[in-house]
Fold each of these.
Amino acid sequence: MTNRIILARLYQVLQPYRTKLLIAMVAMVIVAGFNAAQAYMIKPLLDEIFYNKDGRLLNILPLILLAVFFIKGIFYFLYSYLLEWVGQDVIKDMRNRLYGHFNYLSLDFFQKNSTGELISRVISDVGLLQGSVSHALIHLLRDFFTVISLLGVIFYMDWRLALMSLIFLPMAAVPIIFYGKKFRRISTSYQQCMGEATSILQETIQGARIVKAFCMEKHEMKRFAATMQKLFDTLMSETFYRCLSHPMVEFLGGIGMALIIWFGGVQVLKGDSTPGTFMSFLAALIMLYEPVKGVSKINSTIQSGMASATRIFNLLDIKTDIEEKQDAAVLPLFHNCIEFKDVIFSYNQEEPVLRGINLKVRQGEVLAVVGPSGGGKTTLANLLPRFHDVVGGAVLIDGHDIRDVTLNSLRSQMALVTQQTILFNDTVRNNIAYGSLDCSEEDIRRAASAAFSIEFIEELPDGFETIIGESGARLSGGQRQRISIARAILKDAPILVLDEATSALDTESERKVQKALENLMKNRTTIVIAHRLSTIKNADRIIVMQAGRLVEEGTHDRLLQEHGVYEGLYTMQYAK
Ligand SMILES: Nc1ncnc2c1ncn2[C@@H]1O[C@H](COP(=O)(O)OP(=O)(O)OP(=O)(O)O)[C@@H](O)[C@H]1O
Ligand SMILES: [Mg+2]
C-alpha cells in the first residue's frame, strides 16, 4: 500500500469527525496566535518599560499576560480534549470493525493466521494507530500553526535576521529523511514480536498442563525470553534513532542561533535595532525551534502509525471465501434429503482430501461414517454447514445447492457436536444456551436432563450458574461432552452432525454420553462420525471412508459379511 492510499483511507475514517476536527483546528490556531503574542510581548517589556521607564505599562502588562495564559488554557483544553476524543473513538470503531471482520471471515482464515497475531492486530496495532491519529495530529497541526505565527513575529521584527534563521530550519528535516523508513521497519518488527509473544503466551498458558507434563517450562521460558530480547532490541534501535535525532537537530539549530545572536547583537550595538526587538526576536526563534525539533520525534509516531494502518487495512481487505450470494434464498425447513454429489475438496488446491463423494442421506436416517484416521470424515462433515466450500461437485439439501441459500438459514438447521468440545469461560447455563439465547429456564433444564447432565450440574457449587473455566477446564471430559450435547439438544435443529470424540471415557460415563446421544438423535437426521460400537450398531446405514473415497456402504451385518475394510476396522477397533 502506498502512503497516498493509506492517507486516503485514514481520511475516510476521519470523515465523520469533520466538525469536531474543525473546531479543534480553530482552537489550535488561537493557541498558536497566543504563543506568538507571548513572544511579541517581550518587546514592549524591554523597550517601553525598562528603556523608556513607562510605569503604567508595567501595571498592565502582567495582567495582559495572565489573560493570555487563561484564554490560551481554555483553547488548549478544547482542542486537546476534542482530538483525544476523536482518536479514542476512531480506535473503538476500528477495534469493533476488525473484530466484526474476523467474525465474517471463514474458518480458513483462522486456520491460516495465528491467534496471537490477530490479537496483536486488534489490541496493539490499533493502539499505535491511535497514537498517530491523536498525538501526531495534535502536534503536527498545533506546531504547524505555531510555526506560522512565530514566523510572522520574527519577520515583523527583523526580516533580514528572519531570512537568515530560515536557512537553518530545514535542518530539522535531516533526521526525517535519514530515519523515516527505518522507523517503519522497526514498527513492523515490533508488531511481529508482539504477535509472537501473544501466541506463545496464549498457547502455553492454555496448554500449561502439557508444558508441565513434558517438563518444557525451561524451553518455553527460553522461547519467550528470545522474543522479549528481540522486542528489546527493536525498541532500543528505535530509541537510539529517536534519542540521536533530538541532539542532532538541536546542534544544527544551535549553529543558526549562534550566528543570529552574533549578527543581531552587532546591530543592536550599532543602534540599528533595539534590545527589545532583538530579545523578542530571539524568544520567538527559540520557541520556533521547539516544534521544529518535535517534528522528528513525531515522525517516528507517524511512521509506526502508518505501518499499523497498512496492516489493519490489509486485514480489513481480506475477503471471506464463504460468501453469501446477493440473491441467496432462505432454505426451507429440511424435510427430504441431503445429497453429496461428486464432491471434490482439497485444502491446498493440490492434494484432494475428498475425491468424488456421492452420498444421499434421507430425512430421519442415522448415517454412521467410519474409516481410518485422516480419511476425510471430519472434512466431509465440515462441508455441510459450509465451513468450507466444495472444490468440485455440490452439496444439496432438499435439492437446494447450499451455496445458493443464506448462511443463517443453512446453519440454523444444523446442530454440531465436534471432535473437540468447545466451551466458553461462562456459566453452565450460558454454555448450554449458546446460540439459543432466548430460550426459557425450563428448556435449558430439559436439555440438560436429556443430556444426562442435570445430576452433575446440580452438584456444582452454583449449579447452572457455575463458571466452568476456560474451555470448561473445571469439568471432566465426559461432563464437557454432555454439556455440548445439551447445547445441541437445545438448538433443536433437524440435522445433526456428530463428530464423536475418541477420548477414553470410562464405561459409566460412556454409557451416559451414549444415552445422551440417543436422546439427541431422536427424530433427527444424523450424520455421525462414529467411534463407539453402540452408535455404529444403531445406525441405519454405515459408510466407510478411506483416503477421500467412499469405499463401502451398508448395514453393520452386511458390511461384516463383505469381509472388506469395515471388517478389518471393526475387528481391530471395536470388537474388544
Ligand atoms: N485445515 C486443514 N488444512 C490442510 N489440511 C487439512 C486440514 N484439516 C485436515 N487436513 C487434512 O485432510 C485430511 C483429512 O482430514 P480429516 O480431519 O477430514 O480426517 P478424519 O477422517 O476426520 O480423521 P480422524 O478420524 O482422525 O478425525 C488429512 O490428511 C488432514 O491432514
Ligand atoms: Mg476427524
Amino acid sequence: MQRFEQKLGQLEAQNRLRSLNLPCGIDLTSNDYLGLAEHPALREAAIQFLQQGGDIGAGGSRLLRGHTDPHAALEEYAATYFAAPKALYFATGFQANTALFQALPHRHDVIVFDEFVHASAREGIQNSAAKHVKVQHNDLNAFEDALLKARQKNPQHIWIAVESVYSMDGDIAPLEELYALAEKFDATLIIDEAHGTGVMGPHGKGVSEDLVMKHGYERIITLHTCGKALGVAGGLVCASADMVDYLINTARGFIYSTAPLPLQAHLVKTALEICASEAGAERRRVLEKLCQKAQQFFGGPGTHIVPIVIGDDAACADIAQKLQSDGYDIRAIRPPTVPEGGSRLRLSLSASLSDDVLSGFFEDFKKHQQKRAA
Ligand SMILES: Cc1ncc(COP(=O)(O)O)c(C=O)c1O
C-alpha cells in the first residue's frame, strides 16, 4: 500500500528511518551495565539447567500449567532480594508495565506521570480507564500541583508513575520527595527501576532500595526489568501481596500470554544471585569509576547512562556513523524516542568496559566534533 511507502520515504527524508543492525564494534550501546549477558556463571547455569532436564518452554500461560518450579523459585528469591511481600515475573518489562497500568488504576482514579516515562508505561497508561496527567520531568512543584488538582476532583485513588534512572537522560528521580508527596496525597508511587536494577542502591537493588527498606511496599510498587543489568530478559513487579494477587487475577498481559521460558526464569534468579554477591558488588564499583570518568569527559548526571546531546537529527546520525567507522557501537537516538531537537548519542557504560576504551572514545568523539565545528 502506498501509505507505507510514503511514510518510510518521509522518515528517510527526516533522517529518522530506522533499520535493524547487527552489533558490531565495541559495545557502548547495550543496557548490559554489569556485563552479565555473557557472564560465564550464567552460561554454566544454562548448561546445567538443560543437562538436568530443565524445561525450555513453559507450554502454557502461568494460570494454565505454565507455572513451573523455576518461576516459583525466581519469584520467591526476588521478593526476598527486593524486600517485597511478593514478586511477579513477566516475559518482558514492556509487558509488565502495560499489564500493571492497565490492571491497577480504575476508572475513577488518576495517574500522574512524569513526561519522560518509558513508552511501555505510556502504553499502559493510555490503555487504562483512569484519567491521566502528564507532569514536567522531575519537577517536584509540578508533581505537587498536579496531585493537588487531582485530589480536589475526589478520585478513588491516585497513582504516581516515574522511573528511577531515566533511560535517555540518565538522571535520577527524587524518590524520597516523591514518596513524601505520595503520602501527603494518599497516592501509590510506581517506580520503574529498569535502569536502576542491579546497578544502583547499596546492594544493587535499585535507587529505591533504601526507600522500600524504610517504608515497605504499602504505597510503593517497583518494576525491575531483567534484560538490562541482569543480562537476561523479563520484568519483575514487586508489590504488596494483594496487588500481586490482583495482577495474577486481572492483568491481561499476564493471564493471556504464554509464561516466560522456565530456563529464562532460572537464569534471572542466577543473575540476581550474582548481583547479591561480592562479584556483583565488585562490578558495581568498576562501573562507578567509569561513571565518574565519563562525567568528567561529557558532564551529565554521572550515572551509567550518558546523554551526549547533539540536537540536530542529521548531525547526530553523521557523528554516530563516524564513530561506528572508528569501531564503536554507538547509535543515534532521535525523536520520537527523545524530544524534538534532542537527538543524541546515548553512551551506555558497562562494567566490562576498560578505562582506556572510554578515554579513546572521548578523544575520537572530540576529533569529530572539532571537524564539524571547523
Ligand atoms: C524504563 C524502561 N521501562 C521498561 C522497559 C521495557 O523493558 P523490556 O526491554 O524488558 O521490555 C524499558 C526498555 O527499554 C525501559 O527503558
